[in-house]
């Protein structure tokens, strides 16, 4: 359906459709029309006009999320449109705003907020090229460095050096852009564009570089910290991080796989875990915690009981939780506030069925996202699952890939899912009867694709027909065999792949050296 546009917005589109005319006429445009013109330019992908609007921005703030979000003139939200051409024009326009030699008293801009940009899987821009979080980090850092060089070499208006603009951004740093970002942060005080990191993600980074850059970004402003792939952060490093750096505003924390492993704990490790829990308790804003693929058996209480604010998101997938851990979660004050819960990788029907359903009941009034991948949910458990999900009327997303369910059981479950009014996304497993007899669960990478694809397509069509007949075309149902879309991984997969190949090569070389020594 076409989104309605106001007459003002239609006029704005007509104005920006001719870049040369718009450039000549900008000086005569009322200041309060700039936001309207910016959204119209972004919609039409008028890169030159976007650049000129930002270069001459007359207002105190420039907030991408608000500018591209739903407005009275045009309700469509464009903040998920990460068109490379448009975003590059924005950022180069910001650089040229500083360099523009117009009178300094005309320059009112104090805050630029780039955090409202959303990276999504499908883009429809004409240039067919997106600019993700990593590339935005790279370009802003490059422009800040270039700006400093230019200001040092050129004869600038004295007022230019007095310009100070805070640029709020979600930084994404890997080995490949580390040097550039580090240099921009080191020279932040001298640069008119001040990088202010609100969210920080690091992948493929040595611990030394991670610790160095985390101190440069001003942790006191940080609201979200993601330490994800190939940052070898273990428990002692995490304790060191929390002891040396204070995160007063941190709301969301993601830790890398294998940060914790209680199977090899000593008395010192027990104390270390307690210290980490206490430090997390000092983060009074923390409401989202992800620590998947760690071994935390019997220790969830040590980490979560010191928290003073109830968690809204908890990811403890593949963490080998036992009954005591689940019992703690059920009885904790977090249970009634969980909006997103991931318990993947736990044999729920076998280990703690009643405790899990009690937890589900506690959070049912607020739960928006539930992930139960590789949980050994079988046909005999479907009726109980439906009973547990029935009160979850706000559920928007349900992911249960990797469970041994038949096509018949999936049809039964989908018939129920149609009744959840807020549901938008379902990720369902390949039916068990599409695999050869004797398939074991959880399936390994070698066998995950060895199913009858034609039969799967027929079942998928039948499941979508169930949605269609219930007038639930708004629900997207899919089977992403190798995990859900991750914008950050998608953008840096070449670097991630190169890192993994190099690590494998180094391991082989060490193994060969060891064999040679033995022989």
TrEMBL record:
InterPro entries in the record: LRR_dom_sf (IPR032675), LRRC14/PRAME (IPR050694)
Keyword Cell cycle: no
Keyword Repeat carried by entry: yes
Origin species: Chloropsis hardwickii
Family designation: Belongs to the PRAME family. LRRC14 subfamily.
This protein's UniProt keywords: Leucine-rich repeat, Repeat
Name of this chain's protein: Leucine-rich repeat-containing protein 14B
GO cellular component: cytoplasm
Domain of life: Eukaryota
């Amino acid at each position: 359906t076409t989104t309605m546009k106001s007459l003002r917005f239609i006029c704005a589109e007509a104005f920006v459709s001719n870049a040369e005319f718009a450039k000549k006429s900008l000086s005569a445009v009322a200041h309060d029309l700039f936001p309207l013109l910016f959204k119209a330019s972004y919609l039409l992908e008028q890169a030159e006009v976007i650049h000129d609007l930002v270069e001459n921005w007359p207002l105190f703030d420039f907030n991408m999320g608000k500018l591209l979000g739903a407005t009275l003139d045009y309700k469509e939200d464009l903040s998920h449109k990460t068109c490379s051409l448009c975003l590059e024009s924005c950022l180069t326009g910001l650089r040229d705003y500083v360099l523009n030699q117009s009178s300094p008293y005309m320059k009112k801009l104090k805050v630029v907020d780039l955090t409202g940009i959303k990276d999504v899987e499908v883009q429809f821009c004409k240039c067919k090229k997106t600019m993700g979080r990593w590339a935005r980090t790279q370009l802003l850092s490059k422009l800040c460095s270039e700006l400093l060089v230019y200001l040092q070499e050129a004869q600038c208006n004295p007022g230019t050096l007095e310009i100070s603009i805070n640029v709020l951004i979600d930084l994404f740093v890997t080995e490949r852009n580390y040097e550039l970002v580090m240099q921009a942060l080191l020279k932040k005080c001298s640069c008119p564009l001040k990088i202010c990191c609100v969210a920080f993600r690091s992948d493929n980074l040595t611990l030394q570089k991670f610790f160095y850059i985390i101190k440069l970004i001003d942790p006191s402003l940080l609201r979200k910290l993601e330490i994800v792939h190939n940052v070898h952060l273990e428990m002692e490093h995490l304790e060191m991080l929390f002891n040396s750096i204070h995160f007063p505003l941190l709301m969301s924390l993601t830790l890398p796989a294998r940060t914790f492993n209680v199977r090899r704990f000593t008395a010192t490790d027990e104390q270390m875990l307690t210290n980490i829990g206490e430090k997390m308790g000092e983060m009074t804003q923390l409401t989202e915690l992800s620590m998947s693929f760690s071994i935390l058996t019997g220790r969830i209480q040590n980490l979560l009981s010191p928290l003073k604010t109830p968690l809204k998101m908890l990811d403890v997938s593949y963490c080998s939780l036992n009954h005591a851990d689940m019992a703690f979660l059920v009885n904790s004050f977090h249970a009634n506030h969980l909006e997103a819960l991931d318990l993947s990788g736990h044999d729920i029907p076998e280990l703690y069925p009643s405790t899990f359903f009690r937890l589900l009941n506690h959070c049912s009034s607020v739960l928006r996202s539930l992930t139960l991948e590789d949980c050994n949910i079988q046909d005999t458990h479907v009726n109980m699952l439906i009973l547990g999900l029935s009160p979850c009327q706000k559920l928007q997303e349900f992911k249960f890939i990797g469970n041994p369910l038949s096509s018949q059981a999936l049809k039964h479950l989908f018939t129920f899912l149609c009744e959840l009014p807020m549901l938008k996304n379902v990720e369902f497993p390949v039916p068990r009867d599409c695999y050869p007899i004797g398939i074991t669960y959880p399936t390994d990478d070698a066998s995950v694709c060895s199913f009858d694809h034609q039969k799967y397509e027929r079942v998928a069509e039948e499941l979508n027909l169930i949605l269609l007949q219930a007038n639930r075309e708004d629900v997207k149902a899919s089977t992403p065999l190798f995990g859900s879309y991750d914008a950050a991984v998608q953008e840096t997969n070449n670097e991630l792949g190169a890192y993994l190949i190099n690590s494998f090569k180094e391991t082989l070389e060490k193994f060969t050296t060891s064999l040679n020594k033995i022989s």
